[in-house]
Amino acid sequence: MRACWRWFGDGDPLSLAEIRQTGVKDIVAALYERKPGEAWPLDEVRARAEKVREAGLEWTVVESIPVHEDIKKHTGDWRRFVENYKTSLRNVAACGVKTVCYNFMPVLDWTRTDVKTRLDDGSVVMTYNPYEVAAFDVFALKRPGAESAYDEATLVKAKEVWEKSTPADRERLEKTILMGLPGTVDDLSPEEFLAQVREYANVGEAGLRDHLYGFLNEITPVLEDTGLTMAIHPDDPPYPIFGLPRILSNAADMRIMCEACPSEKVGFTLCTGSLGGSLANDEVAIFREFARRIHFCHFRNLVYAQDGVFRESESHLTGKVDMPALMLELLREEKRRGERIFLRPDHGRQFYIDKDRPCYWGYSFVGRMVGLSELRGLECGLRSVYGL
């Protein structure tokens, strides 16, 4: 694997000097100051790349150039936003970036219900509870028709969750669900969120698919010209929530995208934490089937407490995802390509040593470094045993 580290720019509490001491050579970053839809100016991209290079590292993966909601909906000034996206792609390619990770999820880029789940040893991880999501949807957001989206058992559990919750619990849940993507400050109010959900009712799953495939085929000539690869991130969680369409949640969705977008420059980010959010997904089988079009990887692991309720694992190596088998598939694909695949340790526990450092949830320094060390050890052992 070509180990990478996500850095949030000048606002990141971790310095590039600290990151360099982890042993990684490649930085995953973005122009977080730029809003979705804006073209990234070449001088700003170059300045960021040069800052990273001066620290002895290389900015090789963008995560991400956000796709404007109007592109997803085909509303407003979406065509201009596509042209701006092409400009951003050309400019990052000119400064040494190889791969762009992005997502096409409507409104919410990811969803968790608790970012402060404390384990027995005192470390902190994030949790997803579908019954809390249903409770927020039905009793707080009061989305029209929400009840029909859930089976009776889920509604019963959601009501129990809501009735037992305190005002502080409800405030925590709202803020956690509606928080912006790491690196941004674009948290939503319930009213703003509900308004955007209503707009996507007119798009639907078929419309969102068409808009994604059209967008990707439109930018493919830029990818071919520059050598960039696009690596779409899976839906998180990988099933519909709040009535929003989901179009990249499993192997079937990935097959449809490959058929609609034939260029191998258009591929995937294999995120085990997102795909692992469904027990129906087999991450190893998915990697094996789509290996040629996997351009970037996020590796972490999940532990299920009960049906649908999961949290991040104590270790990147143990949990729902068969990480040794998955790493072996990655190493075999690297051998076939003759080059290593970009991979970053995704998330990590927050330990006491980082409790006073204002990192984004999941992006603590020591927690990610532990995950990186585990993955490196696994890689080393597999290379030795299998002669890779």
Shape: globular
**CATH homologous superfamily?**
Divalent-metal-dependent TIM barrel enzymes
Main structural class: alpha/beta
Low-pLDDT residue spans? none
Order of strands across the main sheet: 1-2-3-4-7-8-9-12
The number of E-state strands comes to 12
User: Could you say what the CATH architecture is?
Assistant: Alpha-Beta Barrel
The CATH class assignment is: Alpha Beta
Number of domains: 1
Say what the CATH topology is.
TIM Barrel
What kind of sheet is the major sheet?
Answer: 8 strands, parallel, barrel
How widely separated are the two ends? 12 Å
Helix content: 40-55%
Q: Give the averaged pLDDT, no decimals.
A: 95
What does this structure look like?
The protein has a single domain, classed as TIM Barrel (Alpha-Beta Barrel). It is 44% helix and 15% strand. It has helices at 16-20, 42-54, 69-73, 78-94, 130-141, 152-164, 167-178, 190-201, 204-226, 251-260, 272-275, 283-290, 323-337, 365-386, and strands spanning 2-6, 26-29, 58-63, 99-102, 114-118, 124-128, 229-232, 266-271, 294-299, 302-306, 309-312, 342-345. The strands form two sheets. The chain has an eight-stranded parallel barrel with strand order 1-2-3-4-7-8-9-12, surrounded by four helices. It has a four-stranded antiparallel beta sheet with strand order 5-6-11-10. A hairpin with a 5-residue loop joins strand 5 and strand 6. The protein is globular and about 55 Å long. The mean pLDDT is 95.
